[in-house]
Amino acid sequence: MTPISGMSNFNQKLFGVMDRIEYRRIVSAEDFEDLSALRTKAYRRANMHVPSNGGLFIDEIDFDPQAYVFGIYCDEQLISSIRIHHVTPDHRVSPARNLFPEEVDRFLDSGMTLIDPVRQASDPDLFDDLPALPYLTLRVAILAIEYFKADRCLSFVPPRHVAFYKRVFGSKLVAGPLRNCKGYGIDFSLLAADIASELPRVYRRYPFFRSQPFERRMMFGPAEEQNQIPLTVIPTARYMLAA
Predict the structure, then answer these.
(1) Which domain of life is it from (predicted)?
(2) Less crowded by CB within 10 Å, the N or C end of the chain?
């Protein structure tokens, strides 16, 4: 890794890890099995509900046409995952809306489009070695925001994580906490970030969130336009700095 002049130690370290990162759309049965195992491990460690019958930890809406499931790989090892929902007034499939219907519909009824990043799961055994995991995972949501030109990015998170989303993304508390949410077994609060006003600040403070347009197209573009879904996508934030 080549050091980047004038950059904080935190950003330097994260760029160093990013040089080993690949993103992959989860589409094959084998990848979904690995994803299920990761979700089960992460959610069990967080005292959240997991399937009790030993079945796969896969949701029906993992296969929604406006849902995008990604694995984040470091040195070819699956280390975290996230599912992105592109929520529009005409397509209101959103886990955040399931918990906070009035609040989410208020955005949609005003004509806004939303990004709802959910089912975040990171390998808890790697937190000490890779403290950048939350940033590397949530970077996928930033790419989705840019690609779909969304108006807001939602976050429904445990109350203990609210301060992180306010600090990093400038998110505002919309509702909650909602106690013992069905299907999760823990409390959640709903936040929303005003993308147009917050992204410039986010990019200045966290330049590893930046990306080139072709990276975003590879992540979220229709498969028929690309002949097939790319096997892996390499982050382009470092190239943005060079440019």
Answers:
(1) Bacteria
(2) C
Reported as type and span, the H/E element at residue 33 is: helix 29-45
- 224 band by pLDDT with thresholds 50, 70 and 90: low
SS3 45: helix
- Domain locations in the chain as residue ranges: 18-242
Identify the sign of the CA torsion 61, 62, 63, 69. Answer: positive
DSSP for 151-217, please give it.
SEEEEEE-GGGHHHHHHHH--EEEEEEESS-TTT-S-EEEEEEEHHHHHHHHHHH-GGG---HHHHH
Token pair, residue 147, equals 């690609």
Contact by Cβ (8 Å): 143, 211: yes
CA distance 28 to 224: 17
Tens-digit pLDDT profile for residues 91-107: 999 999 999 999 999 99
The whole-angstrom separation of Cα 11 and Cα 14 is: 5
CA angle 87, 33, 232 (to 5 degrees): 65
The C-alpha atoms of residue 55 and residue 107 are separated, in whole angstroms, by 36
What does the alpha-carbon distance between residue 146 and residue 131 come to, in Å, rounded to a whole number?
25
| CATH number assigned to the domain with residue range 18-242, chosen from the 4 options 3.40.50.2300, 3.20.20.70, 3.40.630.30, 1.10.260.40 | 3.40.630.30
Task: Specify the 3-state DSSP secondary structure of 121.
Answer: strand
Own/partner contacts of 8-11, CB < 8 Å, gap of 24 or more, are: 11/206, 11/207, 11/208
CA angle, residues 28, 32, 34, in degrees to nearest 5: 120
